[in-house]
Amino acid sequence: MTTAQSEHSQIILATDAGGTMTDAFAVSQDGSFSIGKALTNKVNEAISYANGYENAAANWGMSLEELHAKSIANIYTGTLFLNTLLERKGLSVGLITTKGQESMYIHERGHSWLGLEWEEVLHHKLHHHTGGDMFRLRAALVRGVAERVASGGYFMLTEPGQVKAPLNEAETRDAVNALLDEGVAAIAVVLLFSYLNPAHERRVREIAQDVMRERGVTVPVILSSEIAPVMKEVQRMKSVLMEAAGGPIVREMLRKVEQAANERAYRGELATMASYGSIVNIRHPRMYETILSGPTGGLIGAKTIGEILGERNILTADIGGTSFDVGMIQDHHISLRKEPDFAGHRLALQMVALDSIGAGAGSEVRVDPKFKHITLGPESAGSDVGKCLRHPRVTVSDCNVVLGFLDPDNFLGGDVTLDREAAIRAVREDIAEPLGLGVEEAAQGVLEVLNANLNHHLLTMLKARGANPTEWTMFMFGGAGPLHLYGIDVPFQKVYTFPFAAAFSAFGVACAEYAKRFHQGASYIIPPGADRDVKASIAKAMGDAYSALRDQGVRELNSEGQLATKEVLYGASMRYVGVLEVLDVTFTFGAVMTPEDLDRAIAEFEENYAKIYGKGAALPESGFFVNELFVHVVADKPKPRFVRYELADPRPAESARKGERQAYFAGTWQTTQVYDMDGLVAGNVVRGPAIIEHPMTTLVVPPGAEARFDEHRFIEYRAAAG
Amino acid sequence: MAGDKLLGQRTLLEQIEYTDELTSSGYYYGLRSLPRKEQDPITYERFYDAVHSAVMGARETSKNVAASPGARELGELLFALLTPEGHAVAVSSGLVGHQGAFRIAIRYMAENGYDRNPQIRPGDIFTACDPATTGTPHPGDVYTFVPLFYKDEFIGWAAGMNHTMEAGGAVPGAWPPWSPNTFTDGYLLPPTKVGEDYEDYTWLYKHFERRTRAPMFNILDQKMRVAGCRMVVDSVTEAIDKFGLDYFKDATREIIEETRRICSDNVKLLTVPGRSRFVAFRTVPYAGVVDGVWPQSAKNWLLHLHSEVQIDTREGQVHVNWDKISPANWHAQGGYKGIIESNLWLNVMDTIGLGLKPNSGMNLAVTYDMPEGGLFNPPNDRHSAGNPWASSVALFNCFGGGLEVSKRARGFVEEAWNSDLCWTGIQGEITLKNGFSFGFCQMDLLGASATPARPYMDGEPLGTAWWNPSSDTGSVEEWEYVLPGIYYLSKNVLPSYCGHGRFRGGLGMQLAFAVSDEVQEAIIGKIGASTGNYFTGQASIPGGGYPAPTSTLIVYRQTNILELLRQGEYPGGMAELAEWIESGKLTYTDRELHKEEVGALFVKPGDIYIVAGNATGGWGDPLHRAVDAVALDVKEGFIPASVADRVYGVPVDETGSATESLEAAAEARRAEIRRDREASSVSFEEFWRTEREVVRSGELPQFLTDAYAELNGFSPSFREEFARFWQLDAEEEAQS
Amino acid sequence: MSERASRDVLRDLETSRMSWGEVREILRQEKTPDRFAEYHAALAEATPFGDDVLLRLGEYLYVVREADGTHTVRCGECSHAFGDPRVNWKLSARVRIRRTLEEFMEIYHYEEVCPEPGIAEVREYLCPGCFTLLSVECVPIGYPPVFEFLPDLASVYEDILGQSAPADEDGKWVFEDRTLQAVQKWGTA
């Protein structure tokens, strides 16, 4: 699609390569953008990449080469990593672990239920270990070696990481040989407490390299102390296995794409997205950190726009066809999760805290005849929309058609025509009659269930952080975001959506920054009333660690395209001694270097802790424990800019009006104005009942509400004034 | 609140009696219809979502305050919204079963006029952990209640519970297995007001410090429960703002009745009517343990954990008859009503509880008889409830077994399995050289059992736990950090440690520990459920395969392990340990073996102890197992070739390579085993005659003679069946 | 469920010819009343008894309708008859007893986890026809056999099949445990 004619320059390319479709998104300096689509070529994504931009460029009347020549950044995200593992196409990995822990991959510490809904977790027969399936592990590929490192538990005199049993080098040689005999393509090393002392893991790699030299082979050796140096061995193992099995394959494919871009006159290097919401060069050494890439875009877009609007605290909902993803930005920071459950595995990985709920605009609607429950999803109609098109079962979309919210003749810009009669029949027979309701009532009921679901997840997310909705702003996007916007009944201070809601994630990717995030397991105990000397020595140790991590970040960023470091954030995972849950605190003052810094760090930790759990939960008398240090190194990158428009008259131009139709609001059919989204300009205010249509989305404005296009053409949804 | 009438015109006790009266109609609160739901099912569901997300949110947030790995790592906690009578309306994930027991504490407070003194006011905190008065199954389970007021009207409770680290009993841990009576169970609080305005009184923390061995953990867990209850109160109040108080009052009742109905309909839908019986045995050897002070406990008991399940598909009712259970006695494996209510609910959930809103309605779909004086209905409140989870899980596996058999018979193959889940707890007290001393209970083998074998697949290691649906055993790194001084030598599956069958039970685990030289002295204990002790996990199981082997604790005294560690060597598990002992590489002075539960063993630096547990039983005849499945088991090291040949009739080599010829070889070997079965078996009648002689002639070991005498003396129905089955005359009956 | 859990699906499930993904699907589907009939159809095909099979008692044993209208417990492998379902079928089985540590270790492999010799005994109940292992008990010496499942055939007919209860030698079929009467016949000679 195109926007008003403009000189497209300083273009940023952002690709989202899904399992079936590849979205090629190009955004120009002035914020105008173009989207091209292509079928994903699983053998060589470089081809689908080129096809996608061929047609994105065409929208702007450019050639593929022109587009690339004018591009200043190129970010490629997708599902390749995940699919490689799900389809069990990863490299054959051998695992070396601490002797006595060899069946870690089988018992998974009991995590046989990850990925199930709560109701399913209660249904014990659904519990099943995915274990090594994804990595094709079997007994012959797992070897234990004797070695022991002390935990540094907080009651002890023993130094954390002190060696209790030296690495058994003979066993290590045997293990390496055995794995090479099995023909492994990579060796993963996960030893207990290696995050406190990596010496044994490093020695394993040296020995492995010796053995390989003797045998004249080379396979990569991946250490947990380098990939994910944090506590909890099973999560760490999963992360290392992912890196070992999928990393090289993904990196190779990304190189192909970069080559294709360079051949098309793109001068820079290709980047991709890390799960913690930053761009990393495709030479990034921890490729598994990109396993969740595309979906993080929405949060980055929200963060960027939040900065323009001066909104510190934002809740986001990305409403798609099969699910909705809820995320949050607090004090301008995207909330992260330390141990995300992903694809049935619990990982040691910083991942943006996105809660994905398996119900969306295309979800199937099921009514339990006996107990009259309405349930949505997890199955979804996808491009079959619903019974109003060619899906065999009734869906949420059918309900939106029945109520007049979706225009059967103008769905996806009129590409397909929907059958309203079929939708009505479907809702009557499959929902209304079993529930003993009228057709409209039933359709509205289904949408209420979806909305209630959304509202409760938004509230739970806020509560989990002790946050008050009235201090928060809501951003709603995704293809169906504007369609369900009216359903929000959490008292946010403001609610926004966007004309480009359907492309918001891709837009967000284009807004992302280059950054490196490092987490380093640690074990510093600050006893209650510790004297200055104790604090000084801890502060010194922390300072040294921080400097080392910062230097590594700067080094990596330089080596990956000479990026100038813009900002460095320092923080720590801390807890009261005794408490197991850690709290990540990003310090407002920088790194801890002095005893005074340490006092400030403790103060900021206590402040955050009280905010979430209440003052009563504090336990300063037991002392403090620093369990992890983290550093976030940010480099500069061009971002799309937003044009500031002159504010026009609130009344939309006649040309923006497409006519009117009947829509069902609050129990009655009402005559509803229909507008063309692209015809509405900054300053316009559309009062409900109204429907604003766009080829890729539909915004519903019920009576009593209004949509205001601000100076950036962001749409503020609010109660109608006066 | 006005006067002593907590609920407008009624006291709390009057309210409970009023509700019980209504419910005696067979419908919860007398609700023959569900008007709120029927008039507007959508609003009704939205209301449930609101209160359910309130308790879920409270759990997710507050557990982060917790100290004990049980709560934090393993999710061993629960939050719930209760009616004024203590009936659960909505529960969080976690230790869901306890919702069945909350009402016992509430009733106790009502019966003792707590609404007058000490009074029940907004923000008050009530905590309880005394099994006899509060429904907490054992001292380690602690409940906290905060009243729910809307405006100034009392309308229910927020409840939170978790499994704490240490209960302060005569022996350290959360489940003292050596406890002759309630006075040795530990720090037991009857329902007690321990704070107000959401703030605990200082004295409570001081009690934890003085009367338990893990005060810091217990204090933080209390803070966690209070924080969570407060979140429940706040969220539910918001929901009432939205839906209205009258709606809240009606809908909360309807939600419970709806659940009762679904449960009852599930009985009609999923089961075959009839009677099933399963039994488990456990031994409780106290002789020589506490004799001096408590002579009434100077004996060894055999526990008869017999469940008879009667299914009525016309009424949609399940009845459990425990008339053959052992009597309560002066040991720690009995308990009070709470343990029954908790277990019942947990078993119902995964059987006839599918597809409903989990809450107290489920308890109404099952009735039971626990005889006066029976193991879980003691004649007085002086009996110990130190370790009832051990015996009751075995008892309820028997209850579950009845439902599994019945579901399979009805054709719900996918829903059937052996129902022989088990857990093994390690607990004790560690004193470090630096003088620091702490009690603990380690949940490596509590967080998950192996899953049982099913009619269509093998069980899996550490796969599930009906007492903790989101099963988790924690990480070695977290446990060693919390319990320093004890090194894991192994946390692995133990090959061939399962009940065999056409489908194998899930392999059990082996945990091996070395006591390091940072330790001054340590006390360890081992307890567990369905560990069988001198028997198998269950006496027999629905699938008919071999029941699970028992759990065990093996201690090697004064080994050279610390020296070996310094040289970079240690045994990775039981197999290697045996080899090293054989070869003299590992030396020790004494070896102790404990299949039974142990309250307190002293261990010192250089000692090794091994705990094996959590295996489950098999389904069907091992000779019917697919040959390639057996070969794969050998290849993956799940069973040795010797077992493949002897038990499964598959003469495969150690590489486990399955070939055409292997199929043929297996056929021959299996025919041979069948012939051996023929040769080594007798007709049941013949067996009956010889076994009968043993019973009549008093050739039985004294332990069994005493056990049968105790059962015959307590249970008339057991006595009658026993005597008539063996055709004992009156005199023989008297002596046996 | 009916669309998926057809007779064939149930048979495939029991012969474990299904991926976990397929099993999970079946577990997730709504349970419907037609299951009993579907399973009956599957058993009619999988057992020697055809339509005469009424009920599955366990992995190998079935309640079968006889020509004379009575019901018998039979082995699905060899059709061996165990008699009236109201009598514990174990009385008609062969039984192998394990009592020593050596005998226990043949099955339980590790001495440390075996039942206790001298107190416990392991009973393997075998089909006299084909010597298939039907059930295993580990109980104290002298403990009567466990009667695992006594179905109420009258209710099965009336509540599930919607038919009238089967006749009995003396009129209406009575739901009761007749094991002790059966033992009585062995007398004390």
Automatic annotation (TrEMBL), chain A:
<feature type="domain" description="Hydantoinase/oxoprolinase N-terminal">
    <location>
        <begin position="14"/>
        <end position="211"/>
    </location>
</feature>
<dbReference type="Pfam" id="PF01968">
    <property type="entry name" value="Hydantoinase_A"/>
</dbReference>
<feature type="domain" description="Acetophenone carboxylase-like C-terminal">
    <location>
        <begin position="530"/>
        <end position="719"/>
    </location>
</feature>
<dbReference type="InterPro" id="IPR049517">
    <property type="entry name" value="ACX-like_C"/>
</dbReference>
<dbReference type="GO" id="GO:0017168">
    <property type="term" value="F:5-oxoprolinase (ATP-hydrolyzing) activity"/>
</dbReference>
<dbReference type="Pfam" id="PF05378">
    <property type="entry name" value="Hydant_A_N"/>
</dbReference>
<dbReference type="GO" id="GO:0006749">
    <property type="term" value="P:glutathione metabolic process"/>
</dbReference>
<protein>
    <submittedName>
        <fullName>Acetone carboxylase, beta subunit</fullName>
    </submittedName>
</protein>
<dbReference type="Pfam" id="PF19278">
    <property type="entry name" value="Hydant_A_C"/>
</dbReference>
<feature type="domain" description="Hydantoinase A/oxoprolinase">
    <location>
        <begin position="236"/>
        <end position="516"/>
    </location>
</feature>
<dbReference type="InterPro" id="IPR045079">
    <property type="entry name" value="Oxoprolinase-like"/>
</dbReference>
<dbReference type="InterPro" id="IPR002821">
    <property type="entry name" value="Hydantoinase_A"/>
</dbReference>
<dbReference type="InterPro" id="IPR008040">
    <property type="entry name" value="Hydant_A_N"/>
</dbReference>
<dbReference type="GO" id="GO:0005829">
    <property type="term" value="C:cytosol"/>
</dbReference>
Automatic annotation (TrEMBL), chain C:
<dbReference type="InterPro" id="IPR016750">
    <property type="entry name" value="Aceto_COase_bsu/gsu"/>
</dbReference>
<protein>
    <submittedName>
        <fullName>Acetone carboxylase, gamma subunit</fullName>
    </submittedName>
</protein>
<dbReference type="Pfam" id="PF08882">
    <property type="entry name" value="Acetone_carb_G"/>
</dbReference>
